[in-house]
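[agent] plan:
  1. take the single chain provided in the ticket
  2. run structure prediction with default settings
  3. attach structure tokens to the ticket
  4. add a short note for the reviewer (M.T.)
[agent] executing step 1
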Amino acid sequence: WSLAKYKEAKAVHTGGYEGESNDTTLTCAPPGVPRIYLFNFPVEILEVPGRVIMLFEFGHFVRQIFTDGRPHPQDAAPTWMGDSIGKWEGDTLVVDTVGFNDKSWLDQVGHPHSEALHLTERIRRTARDMLQVEMTFDDPKAYTKPWTAQKAFKLRPDWQISEYICEDNFDNKEIM
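[agent] step 2 finished; step 3 output follows
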């Protein structure tokens, strides 16, 4: 199922596809997690009592990671960003996310996932100006076994969240 869906992906981000793309971000749909990490836009992370909040410039998406001990809801409707529960293990924020819809890709080239995706992230600073996110993907409906990936972020103190409205800033007619 997932291999066929991947082969149907028409990503423009690889540079090798010309014509109409089926990348949902080209119609201003959310990229979902973890794909939103791959867009080169600022993200700000705030820690407040009971939550870690990620503010993304791209599309002004907000991700809430609840750290107050609550469990995942049993009957939540699937969403683009999923339902995220976090806990601190020393200096590492461990985030457990479930409850995704299956409308987004995991990356820029079209790797799909199902609503059964279970994403575990380990987020920590590796240096004063570096943040590392280690991700474990477990999706038995789409992949034969769990797999991992990493993404590093460099602190850029001169960046700030600006207004970015997809419909105003992204002329998707040029590539569709």
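[agent] step 4 note for reviewer: The longest strand covers residues 118-127.
[agent] ticket updated
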